[in-house]
Design brief:
mainly alpha, 4 helices, 49% helix
Amino acid sequence: MIIPIRCTSCGKPVAHLWAQYKDALARGDEPTEVMDKLGLKRYCCRALFLGHIDLLKTVARYKKD
């Protein structure tokens, strides 16, 4: 749904990097280069970013009043 605050494997804080990553991808940058620039060196953090699907807007449509 939303990016975790910390990497689930190593515990490194990663949530603050998600907006920068998403903006860079929208500009057409390569994901590997963006992750290198952001300092995501570990494979677990990289997998978290590559495998994440942003479903917040989809789930928000079904909120209970």
